[in-house]
Amino acid sequence: xxxxxxxxxxxxxxxxxxxxxxxxxxxxxxxxxxxxxxxxxxxxxxxxxxxxxxxxxxxxxxxxxxxxxxxxxxxxxxxxxxxxxxxxxxxxxxxxxxxxxxxxxxxxxxxxxxxxxxxxxxxxxxxxxxxxxxxxxxxxxxxxxxxxxxxxxxxxxxxxxxxxxxxxxxxxxxxxxxxxxxxxxxxxxxxxxxxxxxxxxxxxxxxxxxxxxxxxxxxxxxxxxxxxxxxxxxxxxxxxxxxxxxxxxxxxxxxxxxxxxxxxxxxxxxxxxxxxxxxxxxxxxxxxxxxxxxxxxxxxx
Length: 301
Known about the structure:
Layout: E1 8-11, E2 20-25, E3 32-37, E4 47-52, E5 55-65, E6 74-77, E7 79-84, H1 87-113, E8 119-125, E9 131-137, H2 145-155, E10 158-163, H3 166-173, H4 184-187, H5 197-202, H6 209-212, H7 227-235, E11 243-246, E12 249-257, E13 262-267, E14 272-275, H8 277-280, E15 284-285, H9 288-300
Parallel strand pairs: 3-7, 9-10
Antiparallel strand pairs: 1-6, 2-3, 2-5, 4-5, 4-7, 8-9, 11-12, 11-15, 12-13, 13-14
């Protein structure tokens, strides 16, 4: 089951029926998503039928997701739990993962047979058997028409080949990040945000690619988490390279330390000092014209 979801806002206070939130998994070891239900007391491991954009899909309850405790607060749910799965559906669900593993092996062999320059990442089969999606990565466009024809003959269902980028590949495969935790993309991120080197600069991080790149060899997704906080903190702070006057003393700002509201500045004696927000919040910028006039006056003397 693809993790592409459309989140809907659910009002816990709306209507007479009480709603409950659960974390569900469509495949063992896969990403957990939040699902809403009107059924209380669903235990971890319970197989349920979940409404998706292409029909009902089975999933396991990972855990109960406690409410925020704020009355009238709205929450986000990616899916809706319709009902517990029947015995027949549970049996079919158990064989679904095995069928996808088999399809992966068959497709891998066919890729070798057709000598295609592509790397198969994952196979998903709809629970109703109406469609199979084969996710792959490739450096360029691939003519897979022959491959699709063979797959259709093998599985007797609709086949879709979907090319994904390296970030989506890592999301599907999963892994452990440099922080020692499960990768954000495979644990909770639903949609990728744009990440730029500017975000690393704003947070004073080393611009060494090995330090700010993830398993996918792209910039770390977590660079976006604190970027706005740093940007807002820096907004009202004097910028590096700027000359400011505090009282009767002139300073040259060397760098900012946003999370501590500190700036490191050089005074007229050439010494570096740390100025707190109390010091610099009422600073006056030293205008260029004033600096130029002082230089002219010294030159005339």
